[in-house]
Amino acid sequence: MPPSPSTLLHIGILLLETTQLLDLSAIDLLYMTTPEYLTTCTPPLPQSLISMSRPCKMHYITANAANPTHTTSQLSIQPTSSLTSPAVAPGTLDLVLIPGPSPKTMPPANEYLDFVRAHFEAGVLVLAVCTAAFVVGYAGVADGRRVTAPRLLVPEMRRMFPGADWDERVRVVRDGNLWTCGGITNGHDLVIAYLRDHYPALLVNTILAAADITPRPVAYATSATEDTDTVYVVWRVIKAFSKAVVWFFSKK
């Protein structure tokens, strides 16, 4: 259903340590649907299109907003809210986006898991990108739900979180107020699915054209097994080549 243009959309972006920057970048597609963004476009967009937009307030959330948090590519971000800030208390946000953290930082601290659970139980829409599947898994909100994750991680996810129904065939899965997606740039597919569900098609198509993003099918073109086999073969070729180089120069 299209949003009310006068209603402020409150978006929480939960930043765990070493967030994947490409995962986080998907949030910009949401900002591109705001009147603040659309009124700056050149050439000017028609008012009829701008009237379909919705203002938003983005809250960048960590355990302690006084300290910067870090992403890949050596970027530091100054958060705007702590986990306990009243502005991001359960029920105050319309959605929580969780960009994928480094798997090496898993499991998250309990305070992050409590935050995710509280918002999920309050009915807030939770969007988990890439390795954020670990976060919703550890938080227990994936139990009994159909979910997805980066395809090469799905076997491990099934082992670690057997209470969830892991589907490696698709880029995006929606089950109630939990939405999950595959690896990294599938975060764009996830946000596009949200936009398709909440904004008029004309506005969404305009945003995607401006960003030069071609929507992809929800289902992957190849099976996870085929992709895994391809990665394995490439790895074996590289390994064999490196051994051949060492052997060649040892004969010199």
How would you describe what is shown here?
The chain crosses the membrane at residues 122-141. Residues 56-194 form the DJ-1/PfpI domain. Keywords: Membrane, Signal, Transmembrane, Transmembrane helix. This is DJ-1 domain, InhA-type. The protein has 252 residues and is α/β, with parallel strands linked by helices. The chain folds into two domains: 9-221, Rossmann fold (3-Layer(aba) Sandwich); 222-251. Helices cover 38% and strands 15% of the residues. It contains ten helices and eleven strands. The protein has a seven-stranded mixed sheet with strand order 5-2-1-6-7-11-10. Strand 8 (146-147), helix 7 (154-160) and strand 9 form a beta-alpha-beta unit. The protein is globular, with a radius of gyration of 20 Å. The model has no long low-confidence stretch (mean pLDDT 91).
